[in-house]
Amino acid sequence: MPIDLSVALGAEVGQTTFSWNASDIALYHLGVGAGADPLDANSLRYLHDAEPKVLPTFATVAASFHETEPPKVSMPGIEIDLAAVVHGSQEVTVHRPIPPSGSATTRTTIAELQDKGSAAVIVQESTTIDDAGEPLWTARSAIFAKGEGGFGGERGSSDKVAYPDREPDRTIEEKTLPQQALLYRLCGDRNPLHSSPEFAEMAGFPRPILHGLCTYGTVCRAVTDTMLGGDVDQIERYAAKFAGIVFPGETLRIKVWEDGSRLLISASVADRDDAPALGNVVLTRR
Peroxisomal multifunctional enzyme type 2-like N-terminal domain: which residues (predicted)? Predict the structure, then answer.
């Protein structure tokens, strides 16, 4: 079914009330590679039984953490085959540190529909408030749907990060686990692209790939640990575009440039001649 612009743009996708606890936080952090060094006290704080520190990227999975069914791309005016969809970009702004347990409500709308001709970009914006009505975080997520363009929407702009013309201030290498995608899918993303060899082949990949949001969270954690001393409360905003695929077990090469209150970041796959993984990555400090 083609995208119906008149119905979809601005439509409310849904409202979800959910809760989380310290065990959920710990599982998420394991999913993005925390605890690789069992003697690193700073890293182990991500896994504390009662009061773990919380990466802002937990916001990307919090509302759907306990889902056990594959996601569907079914919204007002939009019905798309999951196999035709890839994650385009993700942005999270945290209005205050995320507590290690709590409950909240997220409201999501379709904020933009970009017509790229041969494809569509669907941008959703979510606002999350706690039980007292106070804002916790705001998120924007874009998905790229192959073959779904031509519906008459605007093409949209392209905001590129201008990286400094110099060597990065820090280069970090972060190895993912061979079973990283199987672990991360327990955080509520059961897309078979990340677990089923048959589905991955149907989608055009030689084997299951790592969730883009797993790469997103892994890079955030690695940069937080290396550049911010593990202080998650310094992070106000974290945004990235998904530039390529990562296979579980590969090593991410993460380059970081200091730029005032911002850290400009890129991530590539060291095992495949620095094939791009994440681009236009910006971490903004408070």
Answer: 18-147
